[in-house]
Every structure is written in structure tokens, then in C-alpha cells.
Specification:
The chain is an alpha+beta fold. Helices cover 22% and strands 36% of the residues.
């Protein structure tokens, strides 16, 4: 439904050219919900705006529903109003002088997607009913809550029956609880409509909860593309491991390589771990040993585990309601450990930790790091 090839966009900053988008290649299947995830300045919004036609790229091609809407090679640029897309902005971009009904109806009354009065009325009422806004059709949008205004913006986009829906951080202005509720509703709605969606966010939790696939961007490039579980459990690079969720890191060196396991020599001992399939290690190679706080297990004794068992001292404790987090000093390394709130430890307690091999990952460092033992 959406295909991007070698998309490149430059900006001029202080008489220098800065590459905001650096040769992105991406395919979004029909009905897929694909998330562009990254921090500010990584190129995700520029990519979205290029698909919308709000930015003119410098190189590459964009094809929507098998039709070229941009090609630098063939000098093609289709204006935004002629592309089969609709966009939901971070600010909602609703018209404050119009009521709910008119906000949704206006794009269907003017422009290339105009409908006659009967068809327009039926389309608007169907969409308002779909989003639970049918009882608010005559309400002024300025009198609506943030969640209701977001729904109006979404209703206006859906009413245009786009082939691709573009969404630029549409939930970021809402409070946390409303954001969590609406992202569930939004994902269910997109699945029900089978609407191809390209969604931009910097919120990792939001991306993991909503995306069928996630493209992680850094410095204008896609550094990893995959399903949420794949990115969380098997990050391919140090950047992705640090960016998505929390992870402990320990410097190490590969000592032994088996079929699907590697032994990494670290300052806390020899640790057995998995490794990314596209990054097969070699003996003597530097690797970061990564494990998430919730995957480390506190043992009452040494237990039956024969490998990846270490001992340490509790340095700090934090109560988070549903969980406790502890900072445990193991040798010269500090590990963050997350466990059920019923597990009570005191500062100074000696503890035994098990780092299950299936949850340890030997990651290729992006660059030599002096902060490898810090939380990502």
C-alpha cells in the first residue's frame, strides 16, 4: 500500500546541509499499522510529511496504492490534496469556529473528495457514530475535552476514506490514563477498518502497544525494523537496546561460541547469553552483555542453576506500587533488578542473582563506551 525507496531530505543549517532523512527504504502492507519510533530530530516526522506531500524530498521515490506520488528521478511530485491520504496532526488542527459536524464535513464539501449533500451527511453521521461522537454533532469543538477533540480530528480523517492514514503523535497532548485508553481504542478501530496506518511517536510504550511493526530511526536512518516483541527481546544494536525499555549493560569479551549461545567473559564472571542472528560473534570480540531488570531473578540460595549466578549487595531500593526496583552492586557493576512488590529487601542485604541465559543478549557495541554499566 505504501512504498518508500531511498528517501533523502536535506535541510540547511547555518550555511551547512544537514541530512534529516538518510536513504530510507520502507514498505507498509495493506491494513498494517506501522510505527516510526525515535527521539526528536531522528527524521520520523520529516518522513511522514514527505509521504503526505508537505515536504518535498531531495531524492527517492514514494508510491501509494501502486501510484507514484514522488520520484526525484522522473520529476514527479503530486500535491498533498491529490494524494490518497489523510493526516491527523499532533495539534489536532480542528477548526474552532465550526461545530463537530462541520469539522468532519468540510473536507467532503470542498476539494477533490467532495460529495453531494445526502452522501456527505450519511458519511459524516456514520463516522461520528463509529467514534462515539454522534451525540455531539452540534457541539462546538472548543467545548470538547482533549480526548473528544482528538476523536473529531480522527473522524475528519476517516471520513475521507484514505488509502493511507498518517498520524503525527496524535496522543501526546493527552494525560497518561486517557492516552493509554485511546491507544487501545485507536488500534482496534484501525484493525476493524483495515486501514493502512503510518504512525509517528517518540513514546516507546505507545509504539510497543500499537504497532504491528516498528521502525526505529536514528540520525535519519532506520536502524531496526520488526515486530514489537522482536525489537524488545532481540535488539540488533546497542542503540535500539538502550532506546527501547530499560536494560543493564556489562562490558565483556567473547570466550566461546556455540550454535545459538555465546559465553562472554565479564568483570562479574563468565555469562552465557544469546546473540542477534545477524551478528554472529567471534572469539575475542568485544560485546555488551545486556539483560532487562525484570528478567533478573532473586534467589533465596544458589539454587539449582549452574551458570549465570552472581552475588551482590543492595545499594538502593525504590517502591513503584506494582513493583520494587533494587540497585545491586556486583563487583564493580551496578545492576538494576525489578521484582514483585512483595519481595522486600533492605539496603546492605547480600543477595544472589540469576541471569537466565535466554534473557541475556550479547550485543555489538555501537562504539567504545565508558558508560556501558549504566542503565540504557
Amino acid at each position: 500500500m505504501l512504498e518508500i525507496k531511498h528517501l533523502t531530505k536535506y535541510y540547511r543549517e547555518k550555511k551547512q546541509l544537514v541530512k534529516a532523512v538518510d536513504g530510507i527504504d520502507l514498505k507498509v502492507e495493506e491494513g498494517e499499522f506501522l510505527v516510526l519510533l525515535g527521539s526528536s530530530g531522528c527524521g520520523k516526522t520529516t518522513t511522514l510529511r514527505a509521504v503526505a506531500g508537505l515536504e518535498r524530498p531531495d531524492e527517492g521515490e514514494i508510491r501509494i496504492d501502486h501510484v507514484d506520488v514522488y520520484s526525484s528521478r522522473r520529476k514527479i511530485f503530486v500535491s498533498p490534496d491529490k494524494r490518497p491520504i489523510a493526516m491527523v496532526f499532533q495539534s489536532y488542527a480542528i477548526w474552532p469556529h465550526l461545530n463537530v459536524y462541520e469539522n468532519v464535513a468540510l473536507p467532503l464539501r470542498v476539494g477533490i473528495r467532495r460529495l453531494n449533500q445526502k452522501e456527505r451527511h450519511q458519511r459524516v453521521m456514520d463516522v461520528l457514530d463509529l467514534l462515539g461522537l454522534d451525540g455531539l454533532a452540534d457541539r462546538e469543538v472548543t467545548a470538547l475535552s482533549g480526548g473528544q477533540q482528538q476523536r473529531v480530528s480522527l473522524a475528519r480523517a476517516i471520513a475521507q476514506q484514505p488509502r493511507v492514514l498518517l498520524m503525527d503523535e496524535p496522543l501526546s497532548n493527552l494525560d497518561y490514563k486517557l492516552r493509554v485508553r485511546l491507544r487501545v481504542e485507536l488500534k482496534e478501530l484501525m484493525q476493524r477498518l483495515n486501514l493502512t496506518t503510518l504512525y509517528v511517536t517518540h513514546d516507546q510504550e505507545e509504539a510497543l502497544a500499537m504497532g504491528d511493526r516498528i521502525a526505529v530511526l536514528n540520525k535519519g536512518k532506520i536502524v531496526q525494523l520488526g515486530k514489537p516483541r522482536e525489537l524488545y527481546e532481540t535488539p540488533q544494536t546497542e542503540f535500539v537496546a538502550r532506546f527501547i525499555g530499560e536494560m543493564n549493560f556489562i562490558d565483556g569479551m567473547v570466550r566461546d561460541v556455540a550454535k545459538d549461545r555465546v559465553t562472554v567473559h565479564t568483570s562479574v564472571g563468565a555469562i552465557t547469553a544469546r546473540f542477534p542472528k545477524n551478528r554472529i560473534p567471534s572469539i575475542g570480540e568485544s560485546r555488551l552483555l545486556g539483560i532487562r531488570p525484570g528478567d533478573i531473578q532473586l534467589l533465596t540460595g544458589r539454587g539449582d542453576q549452574q551458570e549465570n549466578v552472581v552475588q551482590g549487595e543492595v545499594l538502593a531500593a525504590q517502591y513503584l506500587g506494582e513493583a520494587m526496583t533494587y540497585v545491586v552492586k556486583v563487583g564493580d557493576v551496578r545492576l538494576q533488578v525489578k521484582c514483585h512488590h512483595s519481595r522486600q529487601l533492605k539496603i546492605g542485604d547480600r543477595v544472589v542473582l540469576w541471569l537466565p541465559p535466554e534473557y541475556c543478549l550479547a550485543i555489538v557495541p555501537d562504539e567504545p563506551s565508558s558508560t556501558a554499566n549504566d542503565m540504557g
